[in-house]
Write a structure and sequence with these properties.
Elements lengths: L10 H32 L3 H28 L2 H24 L5 H25 L9 H30 L3 H18 L30 H6 L2 H14 L1 H30 L8 H26 L1 H21 L3 H29 L5 H13 L2 H15 L1 H22 L12 H4 L9
Helix pairs in contact: 1-2, 1-5, 1-6, 2-4, 2-8, 2-13, 3-4, 3-6, 4-13, 5-10, 5-12, 8-13, 9-12, 9-13, 9-14, 9-15, 10-11, 10-12, 11-12, 11-15, 14-15
């Protein structure tokens, strides 16, 4: 008789972190469309409106590695709480300026830059904190539930409510956003100090500010004296020296190229080729969110059944099939089903990608390696969106959807060729060995 192990309980501290993350995401999905609506209300110059959007996208790419450095230098709970309080203050200030009629395009750009920069630090600290709150085997489930919570808060609650609140008062969505950041900060402060799970149970102690939990990491004073970019490079070098995680990161970049291209023209494809009526586009979006939610909730079970690396290969294959179905679809129902399957694969990939890294990266490098993963994985997104716009104008949006299917199929073929589960002897690389990786290992 086969005995199935009961899933590990995620615990009180995980629930607090989950609540803080979901609250922040809810506020983000109120603020982002409200910023766009406010920009349009202030100016009809498309260059200015686009600048507000770009201002919120560039900081994670340009400064994300530095966010990882500070996430590793500082105690994670306090970092997240301070960042939450600062973001609440920034958005509250914007709400006051809007209410007084003093908000101009320059202020919107400044706010977008500040919030995106602080968000990169918050994300790096959150990524590094999670492995200290839940057992390693529960990381796929924990990340999946985070994905599910943010999908519901963003897709079903925040995004539909943003326009309603803005119509009632231009300052209202920013006021609510400030409250969500303050709530998130208070929830994080309620967390107990995490312990180093890599240490023997009899020697585990709470991780304090400036104290690395990884024995191989430099001491706090040495880290403070080190150059920021050198420390940032340590995370990137570690990632480059861990073959499986580096390959998964590059595959994410390839996949994000297709995802960004898809999102750039999706509304045109839905209205013109799937013949979705304008009033029904929200239903198509809701179906996509439901697919993503189902994938997030099933990520832990899929990882337990197949193993995370094998599951990632199957996810890419499923997404390639889904995009092929979308490229062939010419009516709302099959197109909506294809999008739902694709969205499910995206949330499973995100959950397992994060969990795999969190389980293998030394605790003292988690912030920097997580930031490096996100930077490398997302660097292709602006390229995909720009290419989709140019190709759509020249050859039509149907060609863009077909191209995304081809790109995802190629990424899937590469994944099946290069991704192999790590051998039991392949433990996490230390910071010291990452700078000089040995000969490539055959997997």
């Amino acid at each position: 008789m086969t005995v199935t192990a009961r899933p590990a309980r995620l615990g009180r501290d995980y629930r607090l972190l989950w609540s803080a993350t979901v609250a922040s995401r809810f506020g983000d999905t109120l603020r982002t469309p409200a910023l766009a609506l406010l920009a349009v209300a202030l100016t009809r110059d498309p260059r200015t409106v686009a600048l507000v959007t770009v201002a919120g996208q560039l900081p994670p790419l340009l400064l994300g590695l530095l966010g990882g450095v500070y996430a590793d230098r500082w105690e994670h709970r306090r970092t997240m709480a301070v960042v939450g309080a600062l973001r609440a203050a920034v958005v509250a200030g914007l709400a006051v300026a809007v209410a007084l009629g003093r908000a101009g395009p320059a202020l919107l750009v400044l706010v977008a830059v500040l919030l995106a920069t602080l968000g990169a630090l918050f994300d790096a600290a959150s990524f590094a904190l999670l492995p200290a709150l839940v057992p390693t085997g529960a990381l796929p489930t924990a990340n999946g539930r985070l994905q599910a919570g943010t999908a519901v808060a963003g897709g079903f609650l925040g995004a539909p409510l943003a326009g309603v609140l803005f119509a009632a008062s231009a300052a209202l969505p920013f006021t609510v956003d400030a409250v969500t950041f303050a709530v998130a900060a208070l929830l994080v402060l309620a967390l107990r100090p995490p312990v180093d799970r890599s240490a023997p149970p009899s020697t585990r102690t709470p991780a304090g500010p400036g104290t690395p939990t990884d024995p191989s990491a430099p001491a706090g004073g040495a880290r403070r004296r080190g150059a920021l970019w050198r420390e940032a490079g340590e995370g990137l070098r570690w990632l480059r020296g861990e073959p499986v995680l580096w390959r998964v990161t590059l595959l994410s970049a390839g996949s994000n190229l297709a995802i960004s291209a898809l999102m750039a023209v999706l509304v045109l494809y839905a209205l013109d080729l799937l013949r979705v009526p304008p009033g029904g586009y929200g239903l198509l979006a809701a179906g996509t969110i439901l697919g993503g939610l189902a994938g997030a909730l099933g990520a832990g079970r899929l990882a337990a059944r197949l193993g995370p690396v094998t599951a990632l290969r199957w996810v890419l294959l499923g997404q390639a099939v889904a995009l092929t179905g979308l490229a062939l679809a010419r009516s709302p129902l099959p197109g909506g089903l294809a999008l739902a399957v694709f969205a499910a694969g995206t949330t499973v990939w995100n959950s397992l990608f994060a969990a795999y890294g969190q389980a293998r990266v030394p605790a003292g490098l988690l912030g920097r390696v997580g930031a490096a993963q996100r930077m490398v994985g997302l660097v292709s997104a602006p390229v995909g969106a720009a290419a989709a716009g140019l190709a759509g104008a020249a050859y039509g949006v149907a060609s863009v959807i077909a191209a995304t299917a081809v790109v995802t199929g190629l990424v899937s073929v590469v994944a099946w060729r290069v991704l192999r589960p790590a051998r039991p002897s392949d433990g996490p690389t230390t910071a010291g060995t990452a700078a000089r990786p040995g000969p490539p290992r055959s997997r």
